[in-house]
């Protein structure tokens, strides 16, 4: 590998003749030279600059266990099918010994139930991916990745479309009209459970002004029953994807009135003080969460539902990108909820609700937003006319497709109708909105309107380690807020959870019991299941007797009780599977995921405890005044005790 790599280290352990053959490989590469890459591969010189990669280092650990049905230790006939457990961990590429990880992966675990080479069928029981890592930056020189600079293609002219004078006629032979049912179905590729947890992806674009930064530091993906048969059989897949963002430098939002700012600058000049003109930045989260979940089937028509949600997207993070299109974003928070319903009869319905808070945006008279949405006025005038008393612009609407055959492009057509519908909703609202010039003119003045109030300090509620109950002392802290709400003071409350170090320790213990604890719990669950089965047998006999005897009043009640028992038996079976899964080889690789799940369950219980304390007060409109973003998991906590942070935001009376 000289001169690309200075040193390659490989440690290999192979147990080929064990009952379950094992392979363990550790690989480490050191001294990877980027400048020598173009010398060995000259065709890359025009597209790649490798001088920044001076000491690339790569490491990875791979271990696998093969499960074979064989008669003797030298029987390696894979054509009969086989299973395997694969673990890939500690994958990292750095530039220098102590450099940050530029590309990596904490872990990849695969539990392969069966692979059939003869048919091509593949059945994966569980696929777990832990914390992908990537660090990418775009500069004037190109795209920086792995210490290399890849030169991006410049803007190209749009190709001229060639119009052919005639369309070629295709003749379909009788053999081509054979019913699709006679075709041999493809081999099934199936993953029962797909999990992806953790994320550390940093993307920066320094070619914009200001620079655009994105840091994704949280990801939870869960997909069940993922199979290619969803295209040809009535199979449904459940999925949930949650993405969270870390803090990046964002412009400080300007507060106060325009005239007040001018007067303040004038005073500073007269007193010979320097006036700050450069934009100021502070570290803030680009968004709270992006959520996508649903239940989906595709055959014979799409069926199920899909829900998406964007929470608190800070539009100032895209100021530099928007400036390329001559759109100026000064401030704004974007929230969106969408629900797609697919009944299965070929119809579709999209319920969409978006909300812009404190939006300040301008563009040229014939700017891209105005053209794209077909607005009758520039976007800044539209925002001015449509904002409510709280400074927000809310747009709810629906898009539907009538029942009928569902073609390949129908769902795309429904989604592409969303921008057009937005434009129609805005145009209708503008025509029905009165001019609000006089009423809002005082917003520019330092007098005549409401004085800007200093944000109220948040209320902190502490919890005992691992406890979701709100103690008496902490519950008493809510009394002043409840009194203000009863007196009619309008404000909203945002409930945010913060983990404590002791919470994380308790969650690790709770989520990862020992083998002895698992066996004891498993035995208890088996006893509970046996008792449930005996009770079910008696209930089934009573239900059959009621149906046969024509007891139409008792029979439905007994049937419901029988279904409830079946549900409890199924839940016990699932618990048994989870408990004994902790005792299998390789279960230790899921310790971080189980810790995270236990911690998030604790956080959700605490948030629900606080919400219940407010809702149970009976104050009208209390449910609408509470905002509770989904708790996010952090591997570290700055303080020992966990907290609920109540952020108080005043609202205007309607």
* H/I helix tally: 14
Which class best fits the helix and strand makeup? alpha+beta
Averaged pLDDT? 82
Strand tally is 24
Could you tell me the radius of gyration in angstroms?
31 Å
Tell me the distance between the termini: 73 Å
- Fraction of residues in H or I helices: 25-40%
Poorly predicted ranges (pLDDT <50, ≥5 residues)?
A: 157-181, 256-262, 435-451
Kindly report the oligomeric state of this protein: single chain
Largest beta sheet, briefly?
A: 18 strands, mixed
Shape field: globular
Beta-strand fraction estimate: 25-35%
Q: Could you describe the 3D structure shown?
A:
- By secondary structure, the chain is an alpha+beta fold.
- Among the domains are: 200 residues, no CATH class; 109 residues, OmpA-like domain (60s Ribosomal Protein L30, Chain: A, 2-Layer Sandwich); 69 residues.
- The protein is built from 14 helices and 24 strands.
- The strands form three sheets. It has an 18-stranded mixed beta sheet that branches.
- The chain is globular.
